[in-house]
Amino acid sequence: MRLDGKVTVITGAAQGIGLGCAEEFAAHGAKVVLSDVLAEKCDEEAARIAGEFGVEAISIPCDVSKEADVDGLFQKTVDHFGTLDIAVANAGVIKAGSILDLSPEDFDQVLGVNLRGVFLTGQTAAKIMVDKGVKGAIVNMASTNAVVAIPNQLAYVTSKGGVVQLTKAMALALAEHGIRVNGIGPGSIMTDVLKSVMNDDAARKMILSRTPLRRIGDPREIGQVAVFLASEYASYLTGQTIYPDGGRLSLNYVVPVDD
Ligand SMILES: NC(=O)c1ccc[n+]([C@@H]2O[C@H](COP(=O)([O-])OP(=O)(O)OC[C@H]3O[C@@H](n4cnc5c(N)ncnc54)[C@H](O)[C@@H]3O)[C@@H](O)[C@H]2O)c1
């Protein structure tokens, strides 16, 4: 499965799952554009990836909730590489709050990044692909929380449910152009937020008890799914969301956890 020379934009790529995606695309030969609000971290990671994987990797800062930023990201990408083949709309944020206490401002902020940002990223990428006649691929980052909810993560679970439907509607509209759109719904993946949660024994047991594979996922394992979805190996797959979740969504009860 190779993506040699495929120009790939990844949002939220300074760390975590986005960075894991950037590494996997680079490992499969793609030219990668790492984008994030954390410009300096993105610069460093792009330079490291270029050296480590021997591919072209550049960094372009962008806040995905802002139209002008997203336009700039894709314009600069096309100016630099001449085309666009793949977009991974990964950037996401989380803000705690239930129906009784979540502020409208926090609701707007989460939806602005996680849903509006995925819409803007996909729309801008798709327009370029259609314009250039590229039969490209778009991958949207959802979550298992698109399917199962957490009461005090109202905005987050709502945004991720929206991403799954957005993915279907995008896929249907872009099918006639040969552009495929799919989603990924990760379970618990070892990024910075989860690392701190896993230091708490009760929280660790709670997470592992609903994870049949009995371990937390690695960001690169999500990158592998993204590479597959963007590759020719997924040539007849569009409108789907795949859940790399260690078996979580298939589990009715809980599994035993070692102390
Ligand atoms: N880690 C998990 O267990 C998990 C599970 C399911 C889904 N996800 C999803 O995966 C994606 C990545 O999450 P992560 O765990 O790597 O989180 P993370 O916080 O480690 O990384 C998110 C990245 O997005 C960037 N970002 C935030 N707001 C942005 C904006 N407005 N514009 C551009 N970049 C922005 C951050 O700077 C950061 O680099 C998110 O969409 C998240 O919802 C994560």
Describe this structure in words.
With 259 residues, this protein is an alpha/beta fold. It has one domain (7-189, 221-250): NAD(P)-binding Rossmann-like Domain (Rossmann fold, 3-Layer(aba) Sandwich). It is 46% helix and 11% strand. It has helices spanning 16-27, 39-53, 67-81, 104-132, 154-174, 192-198, 201-209, 219-230; strands at residues 7-11, 31-35, 57-59, 86-89, 137-141, 180-184, 241-242. It has a seven-stranded parallel β-sheet, sandwiched between helices. Strand 5, helix 5 and strand 6 form a beta-alpha-beta unit. Helix 1 (16-27) crosses helix 8 (219-230) and helix 3 (67-81) runs parallel beside helix 4. The longest helix has 29 residues, at 104-132. The protein is globular. The N and C termini lie far apart (39 Å). The mean pLDDT is 97. Residues 11-12, 14-18, 36-38, 62-65, 90-93, 113, 117, 141, 143, 186, 188-189, 191-192, 194 line the site of nicotinamide-adenine-dinucleotide (NAD).
Number of domains: 1
Order of helices and strands: EHEHEHEHEHEHHHE
Characterize the overall form: globular
User: In what range is the share of β-strand residues?
Assistant: 5-15%
**CATH architecture field:** 3-Layer(aba) Sandwich
Total DSSP helices: 8
Bound ligands, each once:
nicotinamide-adenine-dinucleotide
Going by helix content, strand content and strand pairing, the class is: alpha/beta
Helix content: 40-55%
> How is the biggest beta sheet arranged?
7 strands, parallel
Radius of gyration: 18 Å
Low-confidence stretches: none
CATH fold call? Rossmann fold
Distance N terminus to C terminus? Answer: 39 Å
Report the count of strand segments: 7
What number is the mean pLDDT?
97
Task: Please identify the top-level CATH class.
Answer: Alpha Beta
CATH homologous superfamily name? NAD(P)-binding Rossmann-like Domain
Spatial arrangement of strands, main beta sheet: 3-2-1-4-5-6-7
